[in-house]
Amino acid sequence: EVQLVESGGGLVQPGRSLKLSCAASGFTFSNYYMAWVRQAPTKGLEWVASITNSGGSTYYRDSVKGRFTISRDNAKSTLYLQMDSLRSEDTATYYCTRDPGAGYWYFDFWGPGTMVTVSS
Amino acid sequence: IQLTQSPSLLSASVGDRVTLSCKGSQNINNYLAWYQQKLGEAPKLLIYNTNSLQTGIPSRFSGSGSGTDYTLTISSLQPEDVATYFCYQYNNGLTFGSGTKLEIK
């Protein structure tokens, strides 16, 4: 059974950093592209970042470029999102998601999410 | 590509045939998926590539469309279908629609 479990969310002040993790199980992690998708409170969904199965290429939405870094450790079956220079508009539930293969660009499995609140 | 979903709120009766609409600002080339999100849960993939049913999803859900106009149909609405439904395009950039909230009348 595919499982994705996020951790690392919490309350952080504007301008500070936070690192999210996603532990994957039930599939061969190194074969799949992965992504982070977020949802602000009572709002819609927003793709944040994606990474290829090898980790060799990464992709970001414009509003997080230069501030967020997506990475992965295939030996640990873990996905990461390093978030720097956080802003109030980054407040959201962050979901770890799996691409069904190598570059299909939709998401077939989602974790339960981890909440990030950026506030002073 | 911007996605516009309509209606934003839909109220229907159990057993009704329900149709949700998603319109793109440009041609989506059938790279469209539909997600269901129940209150307090993560989204779940229902349909991908316009009309392919994800494994484990009931056959009462179906998708159709082409070009800029796409539709999710529930053939016979069930109480457990109460949720918000999002369309998502992956043809040019990666964007979600704003959602249609589906209620039971």
Could you characterize the architecture of this molecule?
The complex is a heterodimer of chains A (120) and B (105). With 120 residues, chain A is mainly beta. Helix content of chain A is 0%, strand content 48%. Chain A contains no helices and eleven strands. Chain A is globular, with a radius of gyration of 13 Å. Chain A starts with a strand and ends with a strand. The radius of gyration of chain B is 13 Å and the shape is globular. Helices cover 0% and strands 51% of the residues of chain B. Chain B is built from no helices and eleven strands. By secondary structure, chain B is mainly β. Chains A and B meet through strand 5 and strand 10 of A and strand 5 and strand 10 of B.
**Which structural class do the helices and strands of chain A define?**
mainly beta
Number of helices of chain A: 0
Question: Major sheet of chain B: size, sense and barrel closure?
Answer: 7 strands, mixed
Overall pLDDT of chain A, averaged? Answer: 97
Any descriptors?
heterodimer, A: about 120 residues, mainly beta, B: about 100 residues, four-stranded antiparallel sheet, 11 strands, about 0% helix, globular
How do the strands and helices of this protein lay out in sequence?
The complex is a heterodimer of chains A (120) and B (105).
Chain A: E1 3-7, E2 10-12, E3 18-25, E4 34-39, E5 45-51, E6 58-60, E7 68-73, E8 78-83, E9 92-98, E10 109-110, E11 114-118
Parallel strand pairs in A: 2-11
Antiparallel strand pairs in A: 1-3, 3-8, 4-5, 4-9, 5-6, 7-8, 9-10, 9-11
Chain B: E1 3-6, E2 9-12, E3 18-24, E4 32-37, E5 44-48, E6 52-53, E7 61-66, E8 69-74, E9 83-89, E10 95-96, E11 100-104
Parallel strand pairs in B: 2-11
Antiparallel strand pairs in B: 1-3, 3-8, 4-5, 4-9, 5-6, 7-8, 9-10, 9-11
